[in-house]
Write a structure and sequence with these properties.
homodimer; about 325 residues; alpha+beta; 60s Ribosomal Protein L30, Chain: A; 2 domains; 8-stranded mixed beta sheet
Chain lengths: ~325, ~325
C-alpha cells in the first residue's frame, strides 16, 4: 500500500467512520450520502493552520485534533443544525506521522464522538507544516436554519458563557507564560473549546431566536456581522457583558477583561437575538451554560458600547483578522 | 469591513455563487442547501498546495485557480456524479491578495462555469504560502454512483485519453525547461486538466461500467486501488496503453513514455472496467475523447504488465505519493 493510503487507513481506524446514511465512506473517490426527507443540508469549511492558529511547540497534538473539529463544528451550532459527517484534508510533515498523528487523531476522535460526527472522507499530503482543513456536513429541518440576517430593532442581544476566556489562554501561550500549574485552568477554553450544539438546537426548537452567530472572531466583530446582515445597529452595555476572570497579576500585565471580551476570538459561544416579547422563554441558564442579555438591536445602523457612566462610544470591529496589519 | 471579509466578498463577486437549491450561500456561518428526491450526495475534499503541487514562480495564478477546481471535481467524474456546489478554504500571503488573487479567481470562475459548480462557502486566512482546499458536492441518482469495488474477473479495463501527458508537463516545469514556445503544448494537460464529467455520466447512464477511478496518482497506483477494493487482480498490455507523445529530444533526456504513463499522476482521465459482453456499448471515441481497452481483470490478485514479448512482470504502484522517500 502506498504511504498516503496507509495514513488514510490509520485515520479511518482511529475515527468513527460508519453511519447509517453513509453509503460510501473513506476509501473511494468521494463519499456518498443519503438524507432524510424534510431536511436541508448545512455545510461549512474551516482551515486550522500551524503558526497561525496553533503552535506545534505549545499545543499538545491531542488538543490540536480536538480543537480543529470543535472550531469547524461551531458553525453548525450557530445555524441550529445537527452535525452528521465530516471530511478531513490533512497536510503534515513526515516527523508528525507517528506519535504526533496518533495523539492528534485521538483528540479528533474524541471530538467526533462528542459532537456525533462520522468521518466520511479524507486526503493526506506531505507538507512542511501542519495544515488541517475540515468540512462539516449537518442537517436542519427545512427552513429552520438560523441566519445572521434576522435581527430586528428592539430585539435583545444575548450571549452564552463568558467572553474573552479563549483569548486569555492564547495570550498566555504567545507570551510563553502558560506552563505554570496555576495557569492551567486559564488555558482550558483556548485548548478545548466546546461548540454550543445543544444550545443552538434548543433555541431553534423553541423558536425564539431571530439571528445567531458563533463568537469565533470576537464580540465586536461578530456582532458587526449580525448587524450588517440584518441591516440594523446595536447598543451593548459594557457592564452586562459576562467577562473572563483575569487574575490580578495578569491584569497588571495589561490583560484587560473587557478588551479580551470585546475583541478576543475563539470563544465559540453563541451570540443571538430574541424578540423582547419572547425574552421569558430563555432561562438564565441552559444546560449549565449561563445566558446573558447584553444589549439591544437598534434601528440606527451604528454599533455602540454604553459604559458604566451611561456614555455611548462606537464599538469598532477589533476581533480576529489574520490579514490585519 | 474586516480584511478577511473583504477577501471573501471579492471571491463571491468573481465566482458564480447563486443557484436554485442553494438557500444560504456565502456570508453566513454555513451554507444551507436543499436537494432533489431520489438522489444521493457525493462529497469530496482535496488540498492543492504550493511547492507540493505547484510553484508560484512557474504556474500562472489563473492555471492554479482552474486546476485546483478541476482536480477536486475529477473525483465526482469518477463516481459518475453531477457537480453542484463547492466550498473554498483559501490561505494566501498578503503579497497574493491583489493581482495574483484576481487571476486565480478568474481561473477558478472559468472552471466553475465549465463544470456547473456554484460557490457555496468560503474561508480565507493569511498564511506564508498558498494553500487551496476545496470541497466539492454533487449528486447522483440513488444507488447509481460507480465505486472502485465493482470490478469482476474477466472485465475489460479501459482508459480515456492518453496517459503520462500531465507528468511530462510537470517534469518540464521541475527541470525549468518549460518556457520555450515549442514546448507550450506539452504543458497543456499539466496546467489545465479536464475532469471527464460528461464521460463519467455517459458511462453511468449506459449502465456498462462496473468500477471506476480517475487517474490522479498514475495508472500503476490507481489500477491498484480498483483491484484492492474489488478483491481482484489485473493484467495490462503495455502495447495497448495510449501513451503520451514525447519528442525525441526529451526521450534522450530520459523521459520514457511508458514510465510516464504508468507512474505519472494528474492526468485525471477515467480508468474503468466493463463486463466483456457489454464491450460493444462503449465506442472508441466518446465526446471526442479516445477510449482504449488496455487489459483485463483477473481472479488472481496480482497486477501484471504484459510486454511486447508476451512476458508478464509485476506492475508495482509507482504513482504519485507525497510521502514516498
Amino acid at each position: 500500500m502506498d504511504r498516503e493510503n496507509q495514513l488514510i487507513e490509520r485515520v479511518r481506524r482511529r475515527i468513527p467512520s460508519r453511519a447509517k446514511g453513509l453509503r460510501v465512506g473513506i476509501g473511494d473517490d468521494a463519499a456518498v450520502m443519503s438524507f432524510r426527507n424534510g431536511t436541508e443540508w448545512v455545510v461549512t469549511t474551516d482551515a486550522f493552520l500551524e503558526n497561525v492558529h496553533f503552535l506545534r511547540s505549545a499545543h499538545p497534538p491531542r488538543a490540536v485534533g480536538y480543537k480543529a473539529l470543535a472550531r469547524a463544528t461551531s458553525d453548525l451550532a450557530a445555524m441550529g443544525a445537527r452535525p452528521l459527517y465530516f471530511l478531513l484534508a490533512l497536510a503534515i510533515p513526515p516527523a508528525c506521522t507517528t506519535a504526533w498523528l496518533e495523539s492528534f487523531l485521538g483528540g479528533m476522535a474524541a471530538a467526533a464522538r462528542r459532537f456525533g460526527l462520522t468521518l466520511a472522507g479524507g486526503d493526506t499530503t506531505n507538507y512542511p507544516s501542519v495544515v488541517v482543513n475540515l468540512t462539516i456536513i449537518g442537517e436542519v429541518d427545512s427552513g429552520r436554519a438560523v441566519l445572521r440576517s434576522g435581527a430586528r430593532p428592539g430585539d435583545l442581544i444575548c450571549v452564552s458563557g463568558r467572553l474573552g476566556e479563549a483569548e486569555l489562554g492564547w495570550r498566555l501561550v504567545q507570551r510563553g507564560i502558560y506552563k505554570q500549574e496555576r495557569r492551567k485552568k486559564l488555558l482550558r477554553k483556548h485548548f478545548k473549546p466546546e461548540p454550543r450544539l445543544a444550545l443552538g438546537r434548543w433555541l431553534v426548537d423553541h423558536r425564539c431566536v431571530t439571528a445567531m452567530i458563533d463568537t469565533s472572531d470576537g464580540l465586536s466583530t461578530d456582532l458587526g456581522h449580525i448587524c450588517k446582515a440584518s441591516g440594523v445597529g446595536a447598543k451593548v452595555f459594557a457592564e452586562k457583558i459576562p467577562l473572563v476572570d483575569v487574575p490580578h497579576e495578569l491584569r497588571r500585565m495589561g490583560l484587560d477583561p473587557l478588551r479580551l471580551a470585546l475583541d478576543g476570538g475563539e470563544d465559540y459561544e453563541l451570540l443571538f437575538t430574541i424578540p423582547k416579547r419572547l425574552a421569558g422563554r430563555v432561562p438564565r441558564h441552559l444546560m449549565g451554560i449561563p445566558i446573558t442579555t447584553i444589549g439591544e438591536i437598534t434601528r440606527q445602523k451604528r454599533i455602540g458600547l454604553v459604559g458604566a457612566n451611561g456614555r455611548r462610544n462606537p464599538l469598532h470591529a477589533g476581533g480576529w483578522d489574520s490579514f490585519r496589519k
